[in-house]
Amino acid sequence: MIARTTRGTGSRWPLIWLALLWQLTTPALAWNAAGHRLIAYLAWESMDPTTRSAVAGVLRRHPDFARWQARAGDADPDLGAFLEASTWPDDIRHDKRFFSAGLEEPTPALPGFPDMERRLNWHYVDRPPDSGQAAAASAGQLDRQLVALAHTLADPRSSVGERAYALPWLIHLVGDAHQPLHAASRYGSDGQGDSGGNAVEIVNPFQPHYPSTNLHRYWDELPGPPWLRGRQLQSTARSLSALYQPPPVSGTPAQWIAESRELARTAAYPPAGDAVPTISATFHANSLELARRRVVEAGYRLAEELKRLFADHGGGQ
Ligand SMILES: [Zn+2]
After folding, report:
1. How far apart are CA 147 and CA 305, in angstroms?
2. Confidence of residue 119 (pLDDT cuts 50, 70, 90)
């Protein structure tokens, strides 16, 4: 339940500051942690024991495995590592061991990591949602990295360390590929893109604690609150899998991204009109439905992808 409160204008300022602080400290780059953990939990539930054990064996070799165990609490250690790995590429955005290329000086390499770069441009691929605008710029490596990471995991010549580094990224990026605004940006006549809706201000009356937000963040948060873990995560995942069937095709990264881009064209943007649109009840209901369906599709597809990659050689263990 969300408690709606009526406040005078004077007492709204702390809320506005909180909202601003939240936005400044948590740049929107992905489904939030709830979205990624739900996808990972759904994938784990639909993986066979052989794939689970191969995946768990690789994650145990990740340099941050002990940190994941500490955060996962009393969950099954292998499931806990899998859930925590799903948000690791976002977690390192706030981790001082790592640096943002082009913005900060490189930080010293630590054992087990190829380097300490945050790789912020792996999370998206920006293309105009309308194919008529095909000449406009595109940026981001989501499409290429999904293919490259799968190669690293499947190649028997990859070292254990290379696999351990690649796997959390793959788990995470399968989720990102299903978020419509990770696959598209609208471009203005000046050639400026909206960074997957990050530059589109909206008012979301369905989030009364910080109604002023941007469209990308709105989509990231649709699957659930970022603190969703444990039993609540499991029951949410189970109700989602009861509501939505597995997708008819597993597809390829290029197909997942094409679907997301089409959804960005047809459904992700509120109708044009106001300079700062207010999300309507109809738009919100459609968006929630769509985001939940994409989370379920991503979960099943992640399981299929891992089965495919780990079936032959058990992940090089
Ligand atoms: Zn991401």
Report:
1. 11
2. very high
Q: How confident is the model at residue 156 (pLDDT cuts 50, 70, 90)?
A: very high
Gap from CA of 6 to ligand 1 centroid (Å)? 35
| Averaged confidence pLDDT in the chain | 87
CATH for 28-316 (3.40.30.10, 3.10.620.30, 3.30.465.60, 1.10.575.10): 1.10.575.10
List of residues 6+ apart from 118 with CB closer than 8 A: 92, 93, 98, 99, 100, 101
| CA 30–ligand 1 middle distance (angstroms) | 4
Distance CA 289, CA 281 (A): 12
Give the model confidence (pLDDT) of 258-271 as tens digits.
Answer: 999 999 999 999 99
> What are the two backbone dihedrals, phi and then psi, of residue 193, each rounded to the nearest 5 degrees?
-90, 165
What sections of 132-252 are H helices per DSSP? 142-154, 160-177, 215-221, 230-243
| Å from CA of 29 to ligand 1 middle | 5
Which tens digit of pLDDT belongs to each residue from 276-301?
999 999 999 999 999 999 999 999 99
CA of 275 to the centre of ligand 1 (A): 28
Q: How many CA atoms lie within 13 A of 154 on its CB side?
A: 13
- Cα(7) to ligand 1 centroid in Å equals 35
**Residue 213, exposed/middle/buried by CB under 10 A (0-12, 13-18, 19+)?**
buried
**How far, in Å, from the CA of 35 to the mean position of ligand 1?**
10
> Which alpha helices (H) appear in 60-184, and where do they start and end?
65-72, 77-85, 88-91, 142-154, 160-177
**Alpha carbon of 13 to ligand 1 centroid (Å):** 31
Top-confidence range, 28-42, 185-199, 279-293, 303-317: 279-293
Residue 126: its pLDDT value, please? 87
Q: How confident is the model at residue 73 (pLDDT cuts 50, 70, 90)?
A: confident
Distance in Å, CA 193 to ligand 1 centroid: 19
